[in-house]
Amino acid sequence: MHRRLLLLGLPLLAALPAAARAPRRTQDPDVVFPEAGRRAWAAEVPQIRIGLLGGENEADRLGRFGEYRALMERTFAVPVRLYPAGDYAGVIQAFGARQVELASMSPSAYAGAWLDTRGGVEPLVVTEEEDGTISYVAVMVVRADSGITSLEEMRGRSIAWSDPNSASGYLIPRFALRRQGISPERFFGRTGFGGGHEQAIVAVLQRQYDAAVTWASGIGDESRGFTRGTLRAMVEKGMLNMDDLRIIWRSEPIINGPQTVRADLPDAFKEDMRLFHLALPKAHPAIYRQIERGGGAGYREVSHADYELMVAMRREEAAERRRRG
Known about the structure:
Layout: E1 6-7, E2 10-11, E3 48-52, H1 58-76, E4 80-84, H2 88-96, E5 102-104, H3 107-116, E6 121-128, E7 135-143, E8 158-161, H4 167-179, H5 184-187, E9 190-193, H6 197-205, E10 211-216, H7 230-236, E11 245-250, E12 254-255, E13 258-262, H8 267-283, H9 285-292, E14 298-301, H10 308-324
Parallel strand pairs: 3-4, 3-5, 8-9, 8-10
Antiparallel strand pairs: 1-2, 5-13, 6-13, 6-14, 7-10, 7-11, 7-12
């Protein structure tokens, strides 16, 4: 049974793709991992540069994506390079400068890149959760010993946003609060950026902020950080015991971020990237779990139409900043 895919009363556009589009899925029996060999598109794409979003320390990011990089290099017989950015904006800017070909983006970062490049990026596939949905949730966490048990009790207190280009760690919570008639600037006593999802959680644990927002699949065992997300990754790395945190708010489901490519690349390259990712969870499950920070059902094809609501929210946030300025 699919979870309700609404965002604050607004339909999450194409979160459940229309049957007419028949999006391919990892679970389809005819999805097969690409055969190894150099492709004709290599004349136009002599190397594959992959941008890695911030939100996790660089050594851990490079470690998680090392086998993925090597597999892609073996499969397509071209050099594959990883480019970890200090924050989400770094990858957005790299797409604009044509310095990367591929990146796994948050939905907000994808929308930002699409706006900044005037449609110069496109989504290929999105992660499908174990329950068949393609969504996750934003969660607000506080220390379990803080005495804070609800959003209302955060009035006048401090909160760490994760990244200005993060959906769960910035855009969605602010959008949700405004829809409830709450101005984040007036409601919280102090706001700031943690420098990434993990860093924002650490700031709460170290009592630098009262709360932080991050992402989670929203399904599975909460005491283990759910099935995927920042909390699950920190638990598995020994950085977090969920008994030390309390979740006091969660958003409506948000469409997962897509594997994204530059729109100006050859269609054959894009198709190979789709098939590589669609088949990856079955062909190389350990690598899939590494790059996705936990389990899931694989991937599903998506299009830009699935992210039009996120683009609209980015535009609204920009208008709000101009109004405040």
